[in-house]
Structures are given as C-alpha cells and as structure tokens.
Amino acid sequence: MRKWIAVPSIIALLFVGNTAMAKGVEVKMSNTSSLEVQEEVCGKVPPGLLNALNKVKNPKAKASIQKNIDKHKLKCKDVEKEWTDEQIVAAVKAALQIGFSGNDTAQSVTGPLQLSSGTKGSTIVWSSNKPNVISNNGLAVVRPAAVDEVVVLTATISLNQVSVTKTFSLTVKAASTNLTDIQKVAADKAALEIKFTGSDNANHVTTALAALPSIGTNGSTVFWLSGNPAVISNDGKTVVRPAAGEGDAVVLMIAIVASNSSSDTKVFQLTVKQQLTDAQKVAADKTALDINFGGSDTLNRVTRPVDQLPAVGVNGSVITWISSSPAIVSHDGKTIVRPAVDTADATVVMTALITSNGVTDSKSFTLTVKKEFTTLEKLSADKADLAIAYGESDSATSVTKSLTLPTSLYYGSSVVWVSNTISVISNNGTLISRPAHGAGDATVTLTAYISNNGIGDSKTFQVIVKQLP
C-alpha cells in the first residue's frame, strides 16, 4: 500500500510516454437499442448530419441535408403515432433501466435509486420484495450490517388496458463501517472500472467515456488524471481522436484511490482510434448499411412501409435514398402502395447514396413488393406473425410473469385468447398464479382464435408456469 508521498512518482510516469504499465481491465459494455429505445434518440440530430451541413457549400446538397435533419427530428413523433398500446408498452419495457448513485451498479447498491415513473404516456409502478432494504420508490436503501442482501424490484408498466412487468435483481452491499482505511482502499481499487459508451471498449475508444467514478463502493475518494489530456481529458468527458493518418493514440488513465491517509493507484490503458478518412467512412458505412423491415417482411416480401431507412451512417456519412418506383415505395420508404390483388408483385430498387464531403458511393437493395393479400392470405399472414410476448427473462418453458397477448394484428385480424387453466393463467394473460413450492410446474395451453372479415382460424401455444421457489 502506498501513502500520499508515492503519488507524485506515479503521476510522473504518465507523461514519460505510452508505456505498457497498465493493468488488465474487465470492461462493462453498454447496450444500444432499436425501435424499442426510440425515445433515447428522439430530437437528437446525428453529429454527422450537422457536420455535413456546416461543410457542404452546394445549395442543393445543403437543402437535402437540412431536409434529412428535419425528418430526423420528426421521426419519433411520426412513428409513435402508428404505435399500438402494446408496442408502446413493449418499447418502454425494453428501454427501462434503473439509475444508480455514484459508483453503484446492480451488483453493488449502496445509495438511493432513480426509478422512472413512465414515458410515452405509460405509467410505471415499482414494488420491492424487501421494502425494509430498498423501499418501493427506491429512495430509501438500508444496507445490511454483515451480509449482502439480494432485492428484486418489479416495475409494472401500464397504458390503458395493456400492462407488462420487468424485474431487476439488485445486490445491496453490507455496511463497511468496520473496514480500515487500508481495507477500504484495497476493496475499492479492486472494484474500480471505467465505463464506456456505445460499443467502445479499452482497446477502441471513439467517444467520451461514460463514467469515471469519483467515490468507491466503500467510500474511498477517487481522483483521475490523464496521461494525455489533449486526447482524453482528466474527467473523461472530452475525447479528441487523432486525425486520419496520424495513428491511434494510447492514453494512460490513472485513478488515485484514497481514504484519509491511505492511498493507492490503478492505471488503465486506453487506445483512442484515429479518425477515418472520408473514403474509409463511406466504405465502412456502406458495408454496415442495411434495411430494417417491419414484422416478418424481407427483401423478397415487402408488405409494410420501410420507414427506418438510415439518414446517417454509423461513421457520420450522409445517406440519401432514391426509389426506382416512388409510386410504389416512396423515397423515404414511409409510403407503400402495393399492387392490386388481381395483378402481379412489383420490383423496386432502393438506392442509397452514401456521402462524406466529396466522397460518394452507393448501395442498392432490390425489394419485391407483394400484391395486396386476399382475406385468406391476410388471415394466414397474421397467424404466422402471431406470437406471445414474455416477461423479462421468461420463455415458453419458463413463465413467471404476466404475458402480453395481442388482440389485433397488422393485416386486420382480431384475436380472442382462451386459457385451458384460468386458475394459473387468465384468458388475457395478465394474471399469473404460480404453483406453490413443491407442487411442480404447471403446463397451460393458450388458444388464439383469429378472425378476418368472416374467416377464422386458430393457433395454440403451450407454456410452462414455474412453481414458486
């Protein structure tokens, strides 16, 4: 264990050069989402579009980029207008996370929690299975005296008649009042880590660091210093990537962990990736570019609008879409006019122009737009798409939480559900009564009766409800 007198010598090592003095780090990656986390990007214009707007001089190109920016700002509002209550609740559930205090994580809770009360018009009610340890609102956390305590928080997300649940398992750390300063520092040093944004990790840093903890789990104070503040600031909030051709930059981030007169250091080696050239940006964005289709649609079976055509690549290039037949599929993909039921399928080529400054490339996708379905085909398509949405970590062979059972489907079919054991699962799937511990799991058959314009069909699902632990 080092005392404060050792700190200056450690700091001096940072500025000698890019030495390999860093210790191994277990990196915690953060997830990104999808349509379900649409609200996280609503109103946030991609930096690549703004950069392009500032750099482009051609009036027509500038107008086109501005149009893409305006479309991006309105995207969430346009999409959400088409969402059903089930889709909104599912999106809120997918995006829902717990906010932690200081350096806390789900595996190490020491302070109050931040619990959402609902978004997109939904309401969220929280309940704790051990309210004497974590209160239902998460604001009161009572740490156990000797042994860590596992607490399960359940969020019930509701909108109109639709309701789903999501659970979080949290470990509340035992109070550390009996630890010496040396023990506190040692424990906090061992637990210390850097959190990254997006898909970044220690060997691939492209954006600001997500968090540099200032307080350890056991109350130690953590100070941070960067070996190259021009590339990564001391607080990690600013990352300046080397220009294309300059090579990647290796930066040492040193954490000084202290409690009263005791201190120690932990060093992390981070590699900041150099910027891509415009040609590399375009090439990389072209490779990554794909079309996300709705429902069970594919390139060879398009029946729904294609309203998620990217306007900016992952590396910042600007993407403009051109339809070979805008009367069938609009340039933005949001409007689709399928051929009449007594005609033939239509072929439409969607071409993406990928541009970064003066560098441009293109990528084409050939879509087969299916002619309008007959009533029987609509019924068949809806039956094929019909699925049960399970609670967090649940599946057909392990049901512990409420089910989401769709009652209306994309192609116009309606659904009525019937449970063969309503004492275990209600007909609408919202009430689950798990068998008592020792009684064994329960197998339940859910039958969906599907109808469309006077034509009916059915589809059965067999699920297993787990006994209580």
- Radius of gyration, in angstroms, nearest whole number: 27 Å
Termini, distance in Å?
Answer: 45 Å
Low-confidence regions: 1-41
- The proportion of residues forming helix, as a percent range, comes to 10-25%
Taken as a percent bin, the fraction of beta residues is 15-25%
Order of helices and strands: EHHHHEEEHEEEHEEEHEEE
Structural class, by secondary structure, is alpha+beta
Mean pLDDT: 84
The number of helical runs is 7
The beta-strand count equals 13
| 3D shape | flat
Strands side by side in the biggest sheet: 1-7-6-5
Largest sheet composition: 4 strands, antiparallel
Task: Give a description of the structure.
By secondary structure, this protein is an alpha+beta fold. The model is unreliable at 1-41 (pLDDT under 50). Helix content is 18%, strand content 24%. The strands form 4 sheets. A 4-stranded antiparallel beta sheet has the order 1-7-6-5. A 3-stranded antiparallel beta sheet has the order 2-3-4.
